[in-house]
Design brief:
Elements (H helix, E strand, L loop, with lengths): L3 H15 L4 E7 L4 E3 L5 H5 L4 E7 L2 E6 L4 E5 L4 E6 L8 E7 L4 E6 L5 E5 L24 H8 L6 H6 L9 H11 L12 H22 L3 H6 L29 E5 L2 E5 L6
Parallel strand pairs: 2-9
Antiparallel strand pairs: 1-7, 3-4, 4-5, 5-9, 6-8, 7-8, 10-11
Helix pairs in contact: 1-6, 3-6, 5-6
Length: 273
């Protein structure tokens, strides 16, 4: 699943091609795609709307219209957004419309897990939980003391806490492993057993790791279209996620894998305590 660095990269690629564009024609919309509103004519809401901006909150993309209405997108596991200068048939396309400059906006999702919400001007985000998102990695509010106070009484594993979007928004399975490795903290450690100074280190590395991968994930429009939005540029720089059985890049110990709250997690048994 794309996490904050990937979603932000997508936002930056799409924005120049969609800003000030009007939705001229709705070609297709799959009935399952919209979590809200349901059983309504989505095409009538979308047609004629003019895009003014794309914002991001955690892993959500917020397409803002000049009317003040918003189209909210969560890509989930396999969702992809593309803007192409031509119309083409592609399997698993669940949303397709034509823009005022003749280009085509499409959403493709092989596993059909991605979701969209159409929120009218003045309506709150409570329908999809955005208001419950925790601070982002680059927010001033995200500091060691915040994490300590938020998690000091929790008995759950720190890996699970970092992936909880109400604690920190934008971190998933990949970058929780990378942050914990950089901080020297085992993913299975209970939050209540982690010391305040360790939370300081976690807060620092959340900001550092997510910032590092945001920079590495930046992609040009040409690269994005060529790969059909299927590839990200983080793979060469990942140190532990998915690398179980390989040597730790720091100490040479063999990286191990465990399962925490149903999610795999890789770690170094020597560097992480």
């Amino acid at each position: 699943m794309p996490e904050l660095p990937e979603v932000e990269s997508i936002r930056r690629v799409l924005l120049p091609d969609i800003q000030k564009r009007r939705i001229e024609k709705i070609i297709s919309v799959s009935p399952h795609l919209f979590a809200y509103p349901k059983n309504e004519d989505i095409a009538s809401f979308l047609c004629g709307q003019i895009f003014s901006d794309i914002q991001r909150k955690g892993k959500y993309l917020l397409f803002i219209f000049e009317s003040g209405d918003r189209l909210i997108v969560h890509l989930k596991m396999t969702g992809r957004l593309l803007i192409l200068p031509f119309e083409e048939e592609e399997k698993h396309t669940h949303l397709l419309f034509k823009l005022s400059n003749g280009s085509f906006f499409k959403f493709i999702d092989t596993r059909k897990l991605g979701r969209m919400w159409y929120i009218k001007k003045g309506c709150r985000y409570s329908l999809l939980g955005i208001e419950k998102l925790g601070p982002e990695p680059f927010d001033d509010a995200l500091c060691g003391n915040y994490l300590f106070e938020k998690l000091k009484a929790s008995k759950r594993p720190i890996k699970s806490a970092l992936m909880d979007q109400s604690v920190v928004s934008g971190i998933g399975n990949i970058y929780s492993d990378e942050v914990l490795n950089a901080s020297g903290v085992l993913p299975s450690r209970r939050c209540c057993d982690i010391q305040a100074k360790e939370y300081d280190k976690l807060a620092y590395n959340i900001r550092y790791v997510l910032g590092f991968f945001l920079e590495k994930n930046l992609i040009t429009k040409e690269e994005y279209i060529k790969t059909r939005a299927k590839e990200y540029k983080n793979t060469p720089y990942i140190k532990v996620y998915g690398h179980d059985g390989l040597p730790c890049p720091v100490c040479g110990s063999i990286l191990k894998k465990t399962v925490i709250s149903g999610r795999s997690s890789c770690f170094c048994p020597s560097c992480q305590k």
